[in-house]
Amino acid sequence: MTGSKENDRQAEPIFVTRPSLPSLEAFTESLRQIWDTKMLTNAGPFHQELEHRLGEYLGVEHVSLVNNGTVALIIALQFLERRGEVITTPYSFVATTNALIWTGFTPVFVDIDPMTCNLDPARIEAAITADTVAILPVHCYGNPADVEAIQAIADRHDLHVIYDAAHAFGVRDNGKSILGCGDLSTLSFHATKVFNTFEGGAIISRDAAAKTRIGHLRNFGFVDEVTVVTSGMNGKMSEINAAFGLLQLKHVSEEIEKRRIVSEYYRQALDGVQGVDCLAVADSVAGNYGYFPIFVKADFRIGRDELYDLLKSNGIYSRRYFYPLISSFPMYRDLPSARPANLGHAIRIANEVLCLPIYADLDLETVDKIVDLIENG
């Protein structure tokens, strides 16, 4: 690394993620077809085909496309008949909790399992009150939450479960998609995700009746030209986004495989580096390798933020994801459940985490440089 850092800084910066793009020629042909149909939105042919193709790829039956992952969460929560408290995690992107506020729910934070970074089922039951109506877990970094334990709790207390599966596109556990768990699961197809449609998202539901209702909620409540049955919003995905998604879907398996190689290379290279831990993932999980978080422990040679600055100064843009905790933001910090004493594991993990760059065309020589900077500075 000596003598090369200045050149590295002048080269193209290395970000946490970078989307793979279809050929310009293929996308231009899709645009031509959209122009020919003159149908730009409102569940056109590209939209309908993408819903079908995603269902096949993901191993789920009922897919409803929307225009982004936050809208997916809002519509999924709007789907619920009751309002009240929703138990959720403070360790997520802020959209998870913002969606609760937008739909009239009260968030109740529960600590995470420090090994998985997911909502700790052992702490959920103690947080349930007469006002609790649902649980909103996150499959953090695409690592599946303990869906069986969470569902058992929900069943005992007559609660809904909606999964924020923004990170979990294509993730399977014991060969089965995790997107069929709970009442609904929501996906994000933001440009930073493994599968993207520029902007976009989806809701996975259990049955056709739920999909029909979600269709009303994402389209102003319309059933037909003159019938409105609910106070829906404009959450539709455009034909252009759907066309881009169909092109991306052709290559997403290859994208995930390339990410797997990078992820395993990181793990091998970081093995034995004192004070750096990698996220534990069960052998039964087939992930999408959307993120590569490390945890900088107290016995590492420098602090987490110092490491973040060191990487940045060398053109490596890691991310402290998720830091700070949602519960520390001014609109949430006064909630009783946001007290730091309740969230010890989440606070510690938020102060340790650093997501390293990972994407399909990240070459292993660059990974070596990143690991060398971590280990030696």
From TrEMBL:
SUPFAM superfamilies referenced in this protein's UniProt entry, alphabetically: PLP-dependent transferases (SSF53383)
InterPro entries linked to this entry: DegT/StrS_aminotransferase (IPR000653), PyrdxlP-dep_Trfase (IPR015424), PyrdxlP-dep_Trfase_major (IPR015421)
Protein origin, superkingdom: Bacteria
Major enzyme class: transferase
Keyword annotations from UniProtKB, A to Z: Aminotransferase, Pyridoxal phosphate, Transferase
One term of GO molecular function: transaminase activity
UniProt-listed Enzyme Commission number(s): 2.6.1.-
CDD domains (alphabetical): AHBA_syn
Coiled-coil stretches: none
Entry's family note: Belongs to the DegT/DnrJ/EryC1 family.
The protein, known as: DegT/DnrJ/EryC1/StrS family aminotransferase
Protein species of origin: Sphingosinicella rhizophila
